[in-house]
Amino acid sequence: MSVTTADSTSADSPSNDEAQRIKPPLLPPLLRYILIRIGISLLLIWGVTIVTFLLTNLVPTDPVAAILGDRAAADPEIVAQTRERLGLDEPLIVQYFTYLSNLLQGDMGVSNQTRTPVLQSIGQVFPASIELGIGAILISVIIGLMLGLASALNQNRFLDHAIRTLSLIGISAPTFWIAAVGYYVFFFKLRVVPGAGRLDPWLQPPPRVTGLYTVDSLLAGQMSTFVNAFGHLILPSCVLALFTIGLLTRFSRSSVLDIIRLDYVTAAKAKGLPARTVIFKYIFRGALVPIITVVGLAFGSLLSGAVLTETVFAWNGLGQYAFRGATTLDLPVIMGVGLVIGVVYILVNFIVDLIYGFVDPRVRVR
């Protein structure tokens, strides 16, 4: 018996020595996860520059003709001079590296139509889209998650069927039609919301700090301007949020139903825990990780510009700027907007990945 014990002790000692020689990781798992995601995001941004440049320059239309007009485009000498001035006579690979070099210096080029730096123009219009997108996503998350949770907890009952029908209407109804009807009913008929634009015509914008009128007016202490800007924000935010509300309602319902059937939820109910604790600490928290993904994608979509909504409500944001650049074949504008939209999606997904690390302990361990 003693021999067996000695043998087992001697057999276990190498593994114990090996375990003692294992060094702890140089970086904590969460920090290593963040650094990896930063590296991947940088590579994706570089890829966005390539895709944006190639797709823009492969458009089967001559941008020089769009710049010069029919009469000047008929003169070969003027066309050749314009191509040389814009660098369009260089090989495509040379044009890309010139574009990338300028981009690293903060130069997105100059609009061919307005002769204004693209970066400056985007800086002027993008805060409007940010303000509209934040308002829409807040409404979408609050209402969509509440409706999805209520629908799942009342599965196959009248409330469930009613919420699913409303969410289907929100997803299916055309945004431009909802915007036009909402503008007609709530502004022209009921007069409960202000008209188009970000402010009433007789009001001056607040001193620019962030470009968001609601925030800048609060920073400047202009409460009347804040109330007016907030009123102008309500209707377009609600219109833009309808599709996202329907999407989040249906997705959160499905996610909550998957969690309700798991064993740890059944065990929590068997312990006699209060219903509120079971719903929010067990069911809703377990369903939160996939919901965060949809919220991130929806937020990126809202920030990238809603052309139709901005057009109906005269909201001078990134969507309208992109539309004007596309209709006039303004290549620097198209490339600049495409790059900004790509970076927005990458940054939103990066933030979503960071939230994963804090919400789901399994991500930190891996």
- N-to-C terminal Cα separation, in Å? 42 Å
Largest sheet: none
Question: Per CATH, what is the topology of the domain at 122-365?
Answer: MetI-like fold
Count of strand segments: 0
Question: What is the CATH superfamily label of the domain at 122-365?
Answer: MetI-like
Beta-strand portion reads under 5%
Rg on CA atoms, Å: 28 Å
In which range does the helix fraction lie? over 70%
CATH architectural group of the domain at 122-365: Orthogonal Bundle
Instruction: Assign the CATH class of the domain at 122-365.
Output: Mainly Alpha
Average pLDDT for all residues: 82
User: Which runs of at least 5 residues are low in confidence (pLDDT < 50)?
Assistant: 1-11
Count of individual helical segments:
17
What order do the SSEs take from the amino end to the carboxyl end, as H and E?
HHHHHHHHHHHHHHHHH
Structural class: mainly alpha
Structure characterization notes:
With about 375 residues, this protein is mainly alpha-helical. The protein has a domain at about 120-365: Orthogonal Bundle (MetI-like fold), CATH 1.10.3720.10. About 75% of the residues lie in helices and about 0% in strands. It contains 17 helices and no strands. It has helices at about 1-20, 30-55, 65-70, 70-75, 75-85, 90-105, 120-155, 160-170, 175-190, 215-220, 225-260, 265-270, 275-305, 305-310, 320-325, 330-360, 360-365. Helix 7 (about 120-155) crosses helix 11, helix 7 packs antiparallel against helix 13 and helix 13 (about 275-305) runs antiparallel to helix 16 (about 330-360). The longest helix has about 40 residues, at about 225-260. The two termini are about 40 Å apart.
